[in-house]
Amino acid sequence: MIDGDIIINKHVEQHYSTVFNKSTGLFIRVEEYGFEEPFWAKSGPEVIDISITNYCERNCEFCYRNSNSRGKHMDLKDYVTIIRQAKKVGTLQVALGGGNPNQHPKFIEILRETVNNEIVPSYTTNGEGLTKDILEATKLYCGAMAISAYYPYEYYLSELVNYVTTFQIKTNIHFLLNTNTVKKAISWLKNPPPFFNQINAIIFLNYKPINSSDELLLNKSHLIEDFFESVENNKVGLKIGFDSCSISGILKYMNVNNLFYESCEAARFSAFISEDLKMYPCSFMINSNSYGDLHSDTLSEIWKNNIFFKEHRKKILNNNCNSCIHRNECKGGCVFMENINLCH
User: Fold this and answer.
1) What sign for the dihedral angle of Cα 268, 272, 278, 280?
2) 250: Cβ–Cβ under 8 A, 6 or more apart, which residues?
3) DSSP label at residue 89
């Protein structure tokens, strides 16, 4: 059911409903009286991360996709097929990624096709290629956009935020947390830079060593406790969020209302699709064989029946944290890359 900006999906078989406000991004799962919140959405993913390109001009050494200027773009007709299948299974949002997604040659058409199928798009950019046309389309079609903040490009972040927000776009900052950047994060939380007044939220992302060094893992930093304390005592005056990969640290170091906890949703409520049409439980499985192929199977078939999706759900259910008091909320943190968990 759609009522203006509000979409309500009733999942009769699983005895719950979802409420999504397309305008504000508010999302709620409401289970029927006497039933628990579902472990996974049997009908299909609520959110899909889609890499529409692996093109990027920066060649960052920590990039888990190894994106570069030779990166491949997803064909528009393939994207159209995916998004129409996503609509059928009840997907509410897609997060467009890459590479640098807004440098896809058909980016505006991709945004338009997403909205035409009643799904809200958002995307994360490194700031390259943000033309006037791209930003006007972002304002028209997107729920929000995020700008990646990482060394050595922080120096022009303020200028970029100033430019983007003149288009009245809801803008977030995605900050990659590792041993090299956590000190900067603490500094920003204690002494907010002026551009914080212009953004909607800062989202902290737990570093994953896919194609880079384990030595950068956040759990190796002596500042990890100071960081979470700075979050709790922050003076920034804006929303602060985390990826679900950070759940173990939030539970260990912070006192947060359990309504705001969100453990790993991979293969449960979300999925990832690469530019070459491989569908994974999570984007960080990109170098593994744990995928379904959208060339031969539908999105729905992979979600419900693919062995790797089934196995990932089992790993979350049967995680190795039986003795932990946070097991129910954390669900093992990351069961694919246990070395990133922040409770060690």
Assistant:
1) negative
2) 228, 242, 256, 261
3) H
pLDDT along the chain (344 residues), means of 10: 79 95 89 94 97 90 82 97 97 95 98 97 95 98 92 79 95 95 94 93 93 90 96 87 95 85 94 98 94 98 98 94 89 94 87
| pTM flag (> 0.90) | yes
Whether residue 51 contacts residue 97, with contact meaning beta carbons closer than 8 Å, is answered with yes
Give the list of residues 6+ apart from residue 297 with CB closer than 8 angstroms, or none: 306
The residue written with tokens 């008091």 in the block is 325
Residue 307, classed as helix, strand or coil, is helix
d(CA 273, CA 283): 8
Task: Decide if 66 contacts 96 (C-beta within 8 A).
Answer: no
C-alpha to C-alpha distance for 263 and 343, rounded to whole angstroms: 14
